[in-house]
Amino acid sequence: MIRLRPMTLADLPAVMVLEEELFAPDTWTPSMYRDELARTATRHYLVADDDGAVVGYAGLIAYDDEAHVATIGVTRARQGQGVGALMLDALLAEADRRRSPVVLLEVRADNQLAQELYRRRGFAEIGRRRGYYQPSGADAVVMERKRPAGATDAGERTGA
């Protein structure tokens, strides 16, 4: 059973394996993750844990005026099983808890499955960034979700 929990430094070796599997050659480095995890006031990183195995991870950057989905990754063996949706829902709940009026993200232009997931969660394309992903030079689609009217501030996190 999948359990979402906060990402820790101890998770970095497993996260880096998934980074390489999913995002090479455009991977983040361990030092980038260490820096992100140290910024607790504006960051919210989690992992999807399946009986001790990290099968996915996700991160949110949240400022007063906007939030950004920094990353979402699910091992290919578990894609299509709702793990990514579970993590995205948890990030969006955290953005709502922090009263972020808008959530932004970039997604590879060739990743139609992820774009569809984001659309189902209320995101709309607002632009493109040519050559955004480096070193591959792949384009990014920029998507935005405005905070739903009547969103609660109860502080609950989906799946956490």
Per CATH, which architecture? Answer: 3-Layer(aba) Sandwich
Distance between the termini: 13 Å
For the record, the count of structural domains works out to 1
Q: Quick one: CATH class?
A: Alpha Beta
Q: Label the overall shape.
A: globular
| CATH-defined fold name | Aminopeptidase
SSE sequence, one letter per element: EHHEEEHEHEE
Strand arrangement, major sheet: 1-2-3-4-5-7-6
Entry keywords:
single chain; 7-stranded mixed sheet; globular; 160 residues; Aminopeptidase; alpha+beta; disordered C terminus
Please give a structural write-up.
30% of the residues are buried. Helices cover 28% and strands 36% of the residues. It has one domain: Aminopeptidase (3-Layer(aba) Sandwich), CATH 3.40.630. It starts with a strand and ends in a 14-residue tail after the last strand. With 160 residues, it is an alpha+beta fold. It has a 7-stranded mixed sheet with strand order 1-2-3-4-5-7-6, sandwiched between helices.
